[in-house]
Amino acid sequence: MSRLIVISNRVSAPTAEQPTAQGGLAVALTAALREADGIWFGWSGATGETGELAFKTYDGVTSATIDLPEQDVEEYYDGYANRTLWPLFHYRLGLTEFERDFQGGYERVNRLFADVISPHVEPDDLVWVHDYHMIPLGWLLRQQGLRNRLGFFLHIPWPPTRLLTALPEHRRLVEALFAYDVVGFQTAEWLETFHDYVVREMGGSIGPDDLITVGGRTIRAIACPIGIDAKEFIASATSAEATRTHDRMVDSIDGRRLIVGVDRLDYSKGLEERFNGYERFLETRPDARARVSMLQVAPPSRASVQSYVDIRAALDAASGRINGAHAEIDWVPLRYVNRGLPRSVLAGVYRAAKIGLVTPLRDGMNLVAKEFVAAQDPEDPGVLILSRFAGAAAQLDRALLINPYSPDEMADAIEQALAMPREERITRWQPMFENVRGEDVIWWRKRFTDVLAAVALHEPAA
Ligand code: ADQ
């Protein structure tokens, strides 16, 4: 069996300080790394002079991290990753910054990763690179002479060709993807937009069996939707901690129905539009105060980037406006909490909710939607209201799918969910639950690595 090498911006393998893997991706990859005796490489998250890779082995899993100088963090991470690629790939051209220095930092850090990692890769290893921070890494590893099977998975959407071409170095970025043997996207939709670029901009051709050829090089590009650690999450929804949280939530809403939103505080998650949709519901349904209460949990992220400071200020203003206009002495329409919650508490919150509002403007997948489905009581499940622009909508198509830009559609969907009879809620929830349980994160990891393991070793160009 080949070893597995995972490379991503940050490493979330368990350590002595943090012994349980955090999040589905960490769980799936940790299990695979343990089985395959692999290594997970990435940035330590610390700034400082770049020294040697720091290796740590905990509970059978080895991680290797490196510090990055402040300028690299500013240009590569805050800059090119979070101020250029993230907004562009989420269709937000107006928020995208085009700075040569950012691109320089991005290439420098990718080159550094290639330099420090390649001596640790053995010829038989499967190498799996993750996400938009590391697109050129495969090409740089090939420059070091690596002939290994190389895979890349994009966790975020692939943008339409007409948007992507606004990036001055778009061609160079996409060409680098052809150094990999397998490139994975979350949905068939992102895969199709990738095909469109390859055909229009590169004169490539799309063949059978997920094959794509450009010039003399053929790679496999697949749709491979990520899932959650379903088994663990389903179990945690009925744990003592989740049950305590559930009861606490139910007590706090005094017979009303709970609407819940849980997101990283990011403009792609459509939080401002969600608040506006809820506000429209309150304005147009005078009896709303007797019927609902909303909880939005959104821990701040990427606070060193101005657009994140701006979205936070906009949400503070919107929540203040909504509560100012609609609160009663004994009722607050919107509880807005700016911090993360432990997973079992989160599971209890989802289970107490009658409506899960998951309304990103654009999202590669969105695991919150899957967690909400997994946490429901099978006898009395809540209703998922899901943005049609989330990757998850392709699998969770029995949710109430809405256009998150429309406050009226959102208000109507809330009304429809509140009125939905129990039988219909069960009929909609059941197939979604089967999907979340079947296509979980272990399924995803296995599907990707099986495709990767089946490709032939790379032939260097003659
Ligand atoms: P993210 O944009 O970070 O990830 P998402 O899939 O929505 O997004 O959530 C990631 C995790 O964060 C979920 O497990 C969720 O429970 C957790 N989380 C969010 N808010 C939380 C809170 N307040 N407290 C505790 N936990 C919280 C990127 C892409 C997504 C893609 C994932 C995985 O943007 O589209 O689904 O990668 O590929």
Report on this structure:
The chain has 462 residues and is an alpha/beta fold. The protein has 2 domains: 236 residues, Glycogen Phosphorylase B (Rossmann fold), CATH 3.40.50.2000; 209 residues, Rossmann fold. The chain is built from 17 helices and 16 strands. The longest helix is centred in the last third of the chain and has 21 residues. It is globular and about 70 Å long. The two termini are 29 Å apart. It binds adenosine-5'-diphosphate-glucose (ADQ). Adenosine-5'-diphosphate-glucose (ADQ) binds next to α14.
CA-CA gap between termini? 29 Å
Query: What class would the helix/strand composition place it in?
Result: alpha/beta
Number of alpha- plus pi-helical segments: 17
Cα radius of gyration in angstroms: 23 Å
Low-confidence stretches: none
Strand content: 15-25%
The side-by-side strand order for the widest beta sheet comes to 3-4-2-1-5-6-7-10-9-8
CATH classification, class level of the largest domain: Alpha Beta
The number of E-state strands comes to 16
Give the rounded overall mean pLDDT: 94
Shape: globular
The biggest sheet amounts to: 10 strands, mixed
Second-tier CATH architecture of the largest domain: 3-Layer(aba) Sandwich
In total, the number of domains comes to: 2
- Cofactors, ions, other ligands: adenosine-5'-diphosphate-glucose
Percent helix range: 40-55%
